[in-house]
Amino acid sequence: MAFNPAAETARYIDSLGPEALQKAAYYTSASHWMLLWGFIVSAFVTWIIVRTGILDRVAAKLEKRGWSLRTWLVGLTYFLTSAIIGLPWGIYQEWGFEKSYGRTSQPLSDFLMQDAIGTVISSLLGALFFLGIYALIRKAGKRWWLWSGGLAAFAGAATMILSPVLIEPLFNEYKPLQDGPVKAALVDMAAEAGIPADRVFVYDGSRQSNNFTANVSGLFGSKRIAISDVALKGASLDEVKAVTGHEIGHYVSGHIWRMVGVLVLLSIAFFFLADRLFPRFARAFGSNAGIGDPQGLPVLIFIVGLLSLLAQPVMNAVVRQGEREADNYSLRHVNLPDALASALVKTAEYRYPRPSALQEAIFYTHPSVEWRVRNAMEWKAKGMEKSGN
Question: Which of 13, 255, 312, 374 has its CA 20 to 30 A from that of 141?
């Protein structure tokens, strides 16, 4: 009987069983609704901060301080206050929801500790970034938004360079692979792609999530491939090789730089629109601040957040293209289509594998698992034709 890619794809997907597929559908649909609820929560938090006037009072108390220090402290107050007000939602969204679907085994106490660390770091850096934005508004005038792309590029690149060195180790332990068949195979794969052997790590991703995952992070000397211990514990050697081949595809294709470029373009567009929309949203929230006033930061961030939500299909399309390219790199250079397919099926437990075209276009950061498995099976079929099987 001739090899049938469509039938093989269906077999892989159906191997999860109807119960697991239904659970994945519920989880995926609910996570999409979480975007809407998160937007509503952000509107509520913005309204509270504006109405209580906390940033106005902070700015008034710091009136005799230098502009830079006053602006940074107002921004820091905003980020910390919004995190505190939104904490109940954050606990549910990032921990309770995941716990209810069996996607995390992390104790609440550990989650809260890590969330506190993350809040402090993001608040310090977020306040610093928006200090730069307000400096641009003061110095560049009406075209400040045009220069925001450069600031976003610098901030994004700096974060990517420093994150693997200073930030990620605060949340997980990254170690070189232990000697054995896995290390030998992955080091050989990395060498063929020109990646130093010491840039492939394993980390305790099971601390936060039960998801089967790996990633590429960093830039220049901090760039690395990191594989979650969940993937190593729950996968065969061939599956690990296929997934690592995918991550190597991201690494050698420079997909991180593509994302930096997209970040620059979106930043310019978002801040341009925010400049035009700010007066209307400020009135809606009851704020008297202007676009250049740090006290108006809650309104500015709400507008940028709204625009980011609306632009999600564009961003997702860019990311999906990178994922397709990384899959094809793995197929070309590792050539383990069945291993890649079986590894992808493991991710279908938390990403419904058969979405509608509209659902995938709007919400999915990765091509559907069904498409990716079908792509691997098509590759396998072409290989069988070439070999005469």
Answer: 312
- Residue 109's Cβ-count burial label (10 Å; 0-12, 13-18, 19+) is exposed
> What confidence score (pLDDT) does residue 112 get?
96
Helices then strands (H, E): number in the chain? 17, 4
Q: How far apart are CA 298 and CA 74, in angstroms?
A: 11
CA distance 318 to 196: 28
- Distance of alpha carbon 54 from alpha carbon 65, whole angstroms: 17
CA angle 342, 346, 350 (to 5 degrees): 150
Q: Cβ contacts of residue 9 below 8 Å, gap of 6+? A: 341, 370, 373, 374, 377
Q: How many Å apart are CA 170 and CA 223, to the nearest integer?
A: 17
Placement of tokens 């309770």 in the chain: 96
SS3 259: helix
What span, in angstroms and rounded, lies between the C-alpha atoms of 351 and 364? 9
Which one-letter DSSP state was computed for residue 280? H
For 14-57, write each residue's pLDDT tens digit: 999 999 999 999 999 999 999 999 999 999 999 999 999 999 99
Contacts of 319 (CB under 8 A, 6+ apart): 259, 365, 366
Taking alpha carbons only, the member of 320, 342, 317, 375 closest to residue 243 is 342
Structure pTM?
0.90
175-184: list long-range contacts, CB under 8 Å, 24+ apart. Answer: 175/201, 175/202, 175/203, 176/200, 176/201, 176/202, 177/201, 177/202, 181/237, 182/232, 182/237, 182/240
